[in-house]
Every structure is written in structure tokens, then in C-alpha cells.
Description:
The structure is a homodimer. By secondary structure, chain A is of the alpha+beta class. Chain A has 5 helices and 6 strands.
Amino acid sequence: MTDTDLLRRHGLRVTGPRLAVLEALESxxxxxxxxxxxxxRTTLPSVSVQAVYDVLHALADAGLLRxxxxxxHPARYExxxxxxxxxxxxxxxxxxxxxxxxxxHAPCLVPSSTSGFAVEAAEVTFWGLCPxxxxxx
Amino acid sequence: MTDTDLLRRHGLRVTGPRLAVLEALESxxxxxxxxxxxxxRTTLPSVSVQAVYDVLHALADAGLLRxxxxxxHPARYExxxxxxxxxxxxxxxxxxxxxxxxxxHAPCLVPSSTSGFAVEAAEVTFWGLCPxxxxxx
DNA sequence: ACGTATTCTGGAATCATTCAAGTAACCGTC
DNA sequence: GACGGTTACTTGAATGATTCCAGAATACGT
Lengths: 137, 137
């Protein structure tokens, strides 16, 4: 299935910026808005900052993109959606990588006491040092 | 142990703003910097914005405060540190509450594959609706 | 009490992101 | 294959949380 089909299937118009954003995140996961913009502009030099933000929001709302916001870092986006995978974030350089759920099926989705909250989702973030920053430190 | 002792024990100077910040977070956990400032100013009206940020950083660096940053919300601070407890965040109003770890001892601290990262900590955030927002919706 | 390192004040600057108004483009219909 | 309406994009400015800077004030060891 092409990205064009993917967009249509989700009721979204097919535009250059949208295809370019999907393309950028296909080859590089966990990019920030600024990096997405930079990559998009290598093929579509006139794309505006807001276009990228609009596209990222539209695609995230449609479920085509997942947005993650590691504390202290700008938001990142990835195409891997639907599964409950988590992330490791490097304390040194901010690099992000995927981590599959640790213990069987979604263990963290069941908190002990919810204080009356209706819990819909759980999000796990691991913090540490990436291989590069480990050797530096 | 008084907050004064607590500060000295951690090698920090004892100042009005620091005591006031600790005091504010003693009675109300998960306050944002703006709410801390507002509460501090009820007793010390001349405290500056930056003083509060400096104090929050100093206390967090010393391990007296824990900083949490729910995606899409300004940072919150709490005095409960050292244990690995987690948080529920309301998608409606941003309210935060504590949640003890779900499954025995820190299950989420052991990811399946770390991609070479040296993992130091795991952070779990549950998303849902607080009691108030549930009835409204 | 003195002196100095640290902290606090006040104001401006930064970053990521969003808002607003006008122009351009996608795409169902003719 | 052109038309028109809706949706997306462009340009430019604004926002909110946080940080930077320089100078005045304060804590606390001597």
C-alpha cells in the first residue's frame, strides 16, 4: 500500500507536504518537527513551518503518526502506531529508540489504584545513556 | 525533621523562597511553577519568577523535589521522591495523581531489549479522565 | 561583625508551538 | 477535462513556559 492510498483510506487529502512528511518518517523514526521540516525541504523547498505542524497534527489525529514528548525535549513523531511499544531516551543527546513492552501483554496498563480516574492508556519512558554517550562519559 | 534541617543536610542554603516552595508543595503535590509562585507570594509577595525556577531546579537537583512533565502540560513538582511511583494525568483538565507501581517490584524497569542503552530509570504515565471530567463528558 | 560565594530581582530573550488572514490546491461533480 | 467548494498551505505575528543576563541582596563560615 502506498502512502497515497494510506492517506485516502483515512479520509485525508493527498498533498505534497503530507507525502513528504510520511516519507521522511518512513526512513527515520523519532524525528522532531524541525528535522521533519529540514528533510521535507530537500524535496519541497518552499514548505512552510506551519505546513509541517499542520500535517503532523492531521496525521497524528488520523492515527497515522504517533507523537511522543520526552520531558525536556521537543516532540518527536513516528509511524509505528497501534502497538503498545515504548521508548528509551538518552539523557545525554536526546536520542530515542523503540522498546517493546517488557513483561508479556501490556502489564503497565493496569495500575494498582486509579484514584477514580478512568485510565485509557499507559506510556512508559526509559531513561538512560545511548551507546555513543556511554563511551563519551 | 524541619525543612530547614532538610536543606542544610543536603548542603543547601536556607532561604525564605526555598522554605516557602517546600511548604507549598508539602500541602499540595503536583503544582506547576506558576501555582508554586502564586502560593509562595501569599507569604513572600516580592519573590520573583526566576527565584521560583531557580529554587525548583536547585531542590530537584538535590533530590528534594521530583519534576514531572506530562506531554502537553507545563512541568509539575512533588516532594515524594525516591520511590518509583508513577502518575495518572487527566486528558480533560490536566489533573495529576499518584499511582503506585502496578505489578510487584518495578516491573517496568526491565525492558525487553535496550538497544545498547544503559537504562537508569523508567517512568510510567497513565492517561485517562479524572472523576470530575468523567461526569462532565 | 566581615567578606565572599551564592541566591535573588528585574527585564529581556529564547524556543517550540500556535493563531489569524489570505492564497493555493485537491478532488467530487458536471 | 473544467468548475467550484472545501480543505490545506503561506506569510507574519503572537503566545506561553522557561532561561539568560547583570546587578543588588543575603546566608553563613571565619
